[in-house]
Design a protein that fits this description.
286 residues; alpha/beta; Rossmann fold; 2 domains; binds nicotinamide-adenine-dinucleotide
Length: 286
């Protein structure tokens, strides 16, 4: 099967949020591909156990695996991380800005979680991309930037306002990065917005003892990521066991039509539109 040219044995990948969930599953997959992987996470102790596991699979054992405890929201720490990785491993081919948090937040309530969510989810992605991309642009080698977004930054369901704002920012930021990379590298370095559906990870484990039937395993998200990158897809939109791609497409179209049809904000959750939205979702356009 064809793969993205940067996902090759011996190439270096940096993954943030690699101690758990989608980041960890990606680190495992990239190691299986023979890549040299740098795991980055705030949770340094969790990383330690993972290093041995990955070293057992990596072609050159422990020499192919690096684990660095770092806070992606700290710009200085991220820049020193980029120096450290490049000194230890050489040029970086793949960067995945994936670390994220989802504590609650309310639209009308100030609180520390607003700043923490934006610092981690949005500034964390910006810091990582800005620290690693210049070196990738300057080199002659194929490269890929992956940023983990969310449907909550596209259809924006009410409930966790700061998280939605952060992921809407991540979407727009990654689109801008993709455009700039297209201009500057003519596609040699690509950008990808990974949009997971409901996935059983550290995020969801806080609320469920075992995997809910509707959730995907993180490995399924990584299957879509690797496949989407091979097809040079920018938007890698994952379904889950409850939500099909067709349902996602309809929800995204409805959200865009709020502006075009001048409906109230988030009309999908407005009582006056409840019946219309339900009928729209039930329509079979296939
Ligand atoms: N699980 C889902 O259903 C779902 C759905 C859509 C999007 N996402 C996104 O997927 C990404 C990965 O999340 P996950 O579901 O695997 O959750 P997870 O909790 O299993 O993994 C997130 C990891 O990020 C790390 N992290 C948090 N703050 C950090 C920081 N400041 N610096 C470095 N590392 C930090 C955590 O320690 C953790 O290991 C997130 O960006 C999340 O928003 C998840």
């Amino acid at each position: 099967m064809a793969t993205h040219p940067a996902l090759k044995a011996g190439q270096v990948a940096v993954i943030t949020g690699a101690a758990s969930g989608i980041g960890l599953a990606t680190a495992r997959r990239f190691t299986e591909l023979g890549m040299r992987v740098c795991l980055v996470d705030l949770n340094e102790s969790a990383l330690r156990g993972i290093v041995d596991e990955l070293a057992a699979v990596a072609p050159n054992g422990g020499a192919d695996v690096l684990a660095i405890g770092a806070d992606v929201s700290n710009d200085a720490a991220v820049r020193s991380l980029a120096n450290h990785v490049t000194n230890a491993f050489g040029p970086v081919a793949v960067v995945m800005a994936n670390a994220g948090i989802e504590p609650g937040s309310k639209a009308l309530q100030a609180g520390s979680s607003w700043r923490r969510i934006l610092d981690t989810n949005l500034w964390g992605a910006i810091n990582i991309v800005h620290a690693f991309t210049p070196g990738m642009v300057e080199s002659d080698a194929p490269g890929a930037i992956i940023v983990t977004g969310s449907k909550q930054g596209i259809t924006c369901p009410p409930g966790n306002a700061a998280y939605n704002v952060s992921k809407a920012g991540v979407k727009v930021f990654t689109e801008q990065v993709a455009h700039a990379l297209r201009q500057e590298t003519d596609g040699r370095v690509s950008a990808h917005l990974l949009i997971p559906g409901f996935t059983f990870t550290g995020f969801t484990r806080a609320n469920y003892d075992e995997k809910p039937a509707g959730a995907w395993e993180p490995e399924q998200v990584v299957d879509m990521l690797v496949d989407g990158m091979a097809k040079d897809e920018f938007y890698i939109l994952c379904p889950d066991n409850d939500v099909t791609r067709q349902m996602d497409e309809k929800r995204i179209r409805w959200a865009a039509n709020d502006i075009i049809e001048n409906r109230p904000a988030l009309s999908r959750w407005h009582p006056d539109y409840e019946a219309t939205f339900a009928a729209y979702m039930a329509e079979d356009k296939s």
